[in-house]
Amino acid sequence: MSLLAVSELSKSYADLEIIRDVTFSLEARERAALIGRNGTGKTTLLRLLAGLDHPDAGRVGLSGWARLAYLPQTPEGPSESAVLAHVLEGAADVRALEARARDLEHLMATPEVHGDTDRLNAVMEEYARVREHFEHAGGFTLETRAWMVLSGLGFREPDLARPLGVLSGGWRVRAELARALLGEPDLLLLDEPTNHLDLAATEWLEGYLKSFPGACIVVSHDRALLDAVTSRTLELEDGRVTSYPGAYSAYARLKAERIRLQQEAWARQQEEIAKLEDYIRRYKAGQRAAQAKSREKMLARVEAELIEAPQERRGLRVRATSAPASGKMVARLKRVTKRFEDPTAIDSGGIEVLSEVSLEIYRGERVGMLGPNGAGKSTLLRLIAGLDSPTSGIVTLGAGVRPRYFAQESTQVLDPANTVLDEILSDRPLSPEQVRAYLGRFLFSGEEVFKRVGMLSGGERQRLSLAKLLLDEPNLLLLDEPTNHLDIPAREALEAALREFPGTMIVATHDRYLLERLATRILTVEDRGIADFAGTYREMRERRTREATQRARRMEPRGGKAARKGATGAQPAVPTFDEVAALISAVERERDEAAGWLGDPDLYRDPERARAMRIRYEVAEIRLEELYAMLELIEGGEDRPGQ
After folding, report:
1. 172 and 150 in one domain?
2. The domain that contains 175 carries what CATH number?
């Protein structure tokens, strides 16, 4: 039986049909990507699946036992709730079991129950059942898991007590994502979960979803995430859903092949129709009239089964041309420091974002820039573009360099009062007809060129900013999250244009597909400085993974004995399989002993002792998780060639 069954689902708003006769099913533990161009109705479909909107026709069937969690693009949580408390409410069923267990503990400690054997036995039986369910649901480690999820998404300990109302929109989304993940539902519906995540948090989410035990449907423009997490692709196009086996890359190949075969079949059929029509026209009144009549019947049969011509979708037609080449040295930063004033502090000297940074960029380099949100990536780009000045140090551009900066927030460079046409015309020596033709390549046509910038969607503003940037023919592109708000086809068109760009570029992005296809040098901005890696993003990740694995293999289990010396007395020895297995046995005995005490009603006469025993049990559970993880690491190392 399917976990989710969608049958002939339809939904319209006013006279616009968004979803039409959609039918598909999802099995338990299946992970599907839901993709489509911006505005095709992906969010509408997710809301129908979540039961937040009602269809005009059809039905959504969810298995009766299944739990569902939905993360919208713009969640609205209670402003007064603290972050940790709000996230823990995502596991409300587990918290209810915990509350019931505590009520039963209190009952067992009361004289009227403790002195009544029959009543005590009944309470203890219920307590055993509740505690079993609580343990099975991971209740003893719930707060630890909540902290792990929040930490992975970038929260720090002081953030846990902050009310949701003081968080920015991006951090509100992270809190809601943590809440959805903690509940470990059977079906998880995620609408653009990476929109407000930096690269580290995106990679953490990817790892989490890989091991997520339930099913999920993910709406995302992050192609790397979809390839890593999903095994099926649902494409929403013209109101209908088409299912493709495999993740996004497999879908792209299959879709291209499907269009090619459809085009060939349509062309053959059109050729056959043309031949039949020509024969009928030439011979219907002559000696071959009988044969012409036969051809008319053949034509009717062919026309009854017409093959639909593949529709050519409007897409970005971007070209990134360059001004004449610059000198070999494009940009040089020498001991650059940048501070910003802190209005909340007195005589603090400001907030230092970059400190003593030295850097050289050469002609033709394609540099990817990484780092957590707020680390200083945008600041560094603006310094190179000459839009900001360093607090100290020197920024110089080479001979003949024509830089252009693409802001992460397009509102920084667009006038909301302008029309789309006026924003491009500005002081450029172009006619309105030339500009309208140019804007058509960025999907602005007809009356759309007269829309006010302030009325544009995020994706439309992003496209308009790109149009302005590329019209000026720079030879140094400084791009700050250029694919934000763009759907996958638009991202791929931009990516293709940037790959052909002959100049120099520095791209700050969380889009790993874009990074991998463009960058041959990676700058990581962190701790007010820069780490420089000569190579691709994938090569950098592989090196970091190797280094992290080597560090992990040198570590003792946390909380165990001090690191032992190797034969030379200098290098910590890696614990053996037998040593870790022995530790696991010891901690299991510790856990089982604590569990035995928790099942003894006499324990609850002393609430403090009962609380201490629960903590002892929880610590043992966490310790076991760490030891089992270390055992897997050792087993993996022993299986590798040469170990």
Report:
1. yes
2. 3.40.50.300
Considering only 252-261, 413-422, 573-582, 592-601, which range has the smallest mean pLDDT? 573-582
DSSP-derived secondary structure for 324-347: S---SEEEEEEEEEEEE--TTSSS
User: Does one domain contain both 54 and 200?
Assistant: yes
Q: How crowded is the C-beta side of 164, counted as CA atoms within 13 Å? A: 20
* Segment 230-243, tens digit of pLDDT: 999 999 998 999 99
Contact status, residue 75 vs residue 43, Cβ threshold 8 Å:
no
Token digits for 371? 């780092």
Q: For residue 608, which of 114, 119, 109, 124 has the smallest C-alpha distance?
A: 109
Q: What is the Cα gyration radius of the chain?
A: 31
- Measured between alpha carbons, how far is residue 313 from residues 252, 320, 463, 474, 580 in Å? 15, 21, 17, 29, 59
17, two tokens: 């049909």
Rounded to 10 degrees, the C-alpha dihedral 174/176/178/183 comes to: -170
As a 3-state breakdown, the chain gives helix, strand, coil percent values, each rounded to 5, of 50, 20, 30
Calculate the alpha carbon distances from 253 to 40, 256, 281 in Å. 21, 5, 42
Residue 174 C-beta-side C-alpha neighbours within 13 Å? 26
Same structural domain for residues 23 and 149? no
Q: Are residues 348 and 280 in the same domain?
A: no
Which is nearest to 483 in space by CA: 457, 455, 462? Answer: 462
Can you give the residue range of the structural domain that contains 513? 329-541
Asked if residue 177 and residue 116 are part of one domain, the reply reads yes
Task: List, for residues 582-621, the tens digit of each pLDDT value.
Answer: 788 888 888 888 877 776 666 656 656 766 677 677 777 7
Give yes or no: residues 370 and 448 share one domain. Answer: yes
